[in-house]
Design a protein that fits this description.
The protein contains eleven helices and eight strands. It has about 250 residues and is α/β, with parallel strands linked by helices. The structure holds phosphoenolpyruvate. Phosphoenolpyruvate binds next to strand 8.
Length: about 250
């Protein structure tokens, strides 16, 4: 059985005081969602603060929102996977659609970052998903599988032996318009089948998260589907009650 996973992506939000109060509020409820793995991904500058606070709450882990495609060196402004690991990150979000669209990350760069996270002993969380135009053109499966295949091409047939995939339709992110559970389940199934063609063992154990306007109200129905193993949560992860509600829905 795959253990559910809920990840909160804080994106570029918050300050020290809000990070502390949000963490305290979530940690105070951690005992109520014991059958789910919970990860928070703060901005890089707050990783130390979050790590210190989570020291007293072993049931919540820390993740990075991104890592560099390079190893340590002369790359001003970058944060390496090794640095994030050193700060206690067990997970790294890779290829979020905001990185792909706003910062021009290609499938090749994303695959490089995925490889760096693995090499640093972290679990990469590969984000895949189609835009509204691609969906309207009936290209969802083609786009998502292309994004998965780019990682296989760089990292080899066992790429997903230690990884998570997050299916995040771009049109659902931050819009309040989530994919329906049926729609998401169909894409999750395609992703699992695609991984199974290279590595059946990894596919069976692979946690595939859904992301895109998940709220406490729709989480339970989404997570009930056979191939939806939890969620990657943006906006709702900044509100303690909402995030706790989503974690409970998964556990
Ligand atoms: C995200 O950006 O990964 C995301 C899922 O955002 P939201 O939950 O706000 O739609």
């Amino acid at each position: 059985m795959r253990r559910p996973l809920v990840m909160g992506n804080w994106k570029m939000n918050g300050r020290r005081c809000t990070a502390q109060s949000l963490l305290s509020a979530v940690a105070a409820e951690a005992a109520t969602f014991s059958d789910v793995d919970v990860v928070v991904c703060p901005p890089h500058v707050y990783l130390g603060l979050v790590g210190d606070r989570l020291g007293g709450c072993p049931s919540i882990a820390c993740g990075a929102q991104d890592v560099s495609a390079y190893v340590d060196g002369a790359y001003t402004g970058e944060v390496s996977a090794e640095m994030a690991r050193d700060m206690g990150c067990e997970f790294a979000i890779i290829g979020h659609s905001e990185r792909r669209t706003l910062f021009g990350e290609t499938d090749g760069v994303v695959a490089q970052k995925f490889a760096r996270a693995l090499a640093a002993d972290m679990t990469p969380v590969l984000c895949v998903g189609e835009t509204a135009e691609e969906r309207d053109a009936g290209r969802t499966r083609e786009v998502v599988l292309r994004q998965i295949d780019a990682v296989f091409a760089t990292c080899g047939a066992r790429a997903f032996a230690r990884a998570v995939v997050a299916y995040e339709p771009v049109w659902a992110i931050g819009t309040g318009r989530a994919a329906s559970p049926d729609e998401a389940q169909a894409v999750h199934r395609d992703i699992r089948d695609a991984v199974a063609r290279h590595d059946p063992e990894a596919a069976a154990g692979l946690r595939i998260l859904y992301g895109g306007s998940v709220k406490a109200q729709n989480a339970r129905e989404l997570f009930a589907r056979a191939d939806i193993d939890g969620g990657l949560i943006g906006g709702a992860s900044l509100i303690a009650d909402d995030f706790v509600g989503i974690c409970r829905a998964a556990g």
